[in-house]
Design goal:
five-stranded parallel sheet, 307 residues, alpha/beta
Length: 307
């Protein structure tokens, strides 16, 4: 009996040692690969945005930032190095962490933040998985994950394998096919498809309450930006949807911007973009033709604000 228990204990110890070793090696390898693919592919863009981007003007947001703001046009107009760090599927929590991480590294002249007010509600899709590799390494990401997710999730994030699980293969594939070619679009990702037979619908309001945690996070971020002297422009770009009335989130956004003297531009209901579905790929994303037209309008709105 004792001999069997001893053998079992040794087996468990060996297995745990092997698993721990694999986990440590995975973390070391992925941490080494990430800088090698900086700004290549979606995962590399996240690394670049949080750790290396140092442009005078930064465009922040989700896919609507990445696809709606033609970076070179803005840079040529304002005469400042500009980069679009917008990324598909990365919403409020991601961008709050990103803005604060950028401010930790340097002070840009201006931040253009494509902002979807609906993301301030509780229960709205706002995934954190793209930030998992930086848990425990970036204080903003770590605190956000611990505030937003149950303790069981961030306990699992102590495992390197768990943190990198969803992107391990994509990091490896990107590393093996890495390129030194310059990103001539400076983060802007054009969409070339044109929506067909798209009808103009009415936007729906989320059936939930405003998240107190998100509001506190947002207000702290606005206060910090204001204190650093960075020019912040919050903007909601065109959608092929009709907003009939101001939501609770819209009203709260206007109040916060007023309290902190922040410029907020609501471009979601520009008539030209509500009359021409050919400017869109889908109801919430402009195609390249629409993005170029919109960027011209946006430049006329913000050029005098960025100095």
């Amino acid at each position: 009996m004792k001999k069997g228990l001893k053998k079992f204990s040794i087996t468990i110890t060996v297995v745990l040692a092997i698993v721990t070793g694999i986990d440590c090696c995975t973390g070391f390898l992925m941490d080494w690969m990430l800088p090698q693919i900086s700004n290549q592919g979606a995962t590399g863009k996240t690394y670049f945005s949080f750790n290396e981007a140092s442009y005078q003007t930064i465009i922040v947001g989700s896919s609507r930032a990445e696809h709606h703001y033609v970076t070179q046009m803005i840079e040529d107009s304002i005469g400042m190095p500009t980069y679009n760090v917008g990324r598909d599927g990365c919403f409020f929590n991601y961008n709050c962490c990103l803005v604060n991480s950028i401010l930790d590294r340097y002070t840009p002249k201006a931040i253009i933040w494509e902002f979807d007010n609906d993301k301030l509600y509780s229960g709205i899709y706002d995934p954190l998985e793209d930030m998992y590799p930086y848990y425990g390494k970036n204080k903003w990401i770590t605190s956000t994950i611990e505030e937003e997710l149950p303790w069981s999730e961030y306990v699992r994030l102590n495992s390197n394998i768990y943190r990198y699980n969803s992107i391990l293969l994509s990091i490896t594939a990107r590393y093996l096919n890495r390129s030194s070619a310059a990103d001539t679009s400076k983060g802007y990702a054009p969409l070339y498809a044109t929506a067909k037979n798209m009808s103009l619908d009415t936007a729906t309001t989320p059936d939930s309450d405003i998240s107190i945690t998100k509001i506190k996070r947002f207000e702290a971020t606005l206060k910090r930006i204001k204190e650093t002297g960075v020019t912040l422009i919050l903007v909601d770009s065109p959608k092929f949807l009709i907003d009939k009335e101001k939501t609770q989130a819209d009203q709260l956004m206007e109040k916060l911007c007023s309290d902190y003297s922040i410029t907020y531009i609501d471009n979601s209901q520009i008539s030209m973009f509500l009359e021409h579905p050919e400017y869109y790929k889908d109801q919430t994303h402009l195609n390249d033709k629409g993005a170029k037209l919109y960027t011209e309008i946006f430049i006329s709105q913000c050029k005098s604000l960025i100095k």
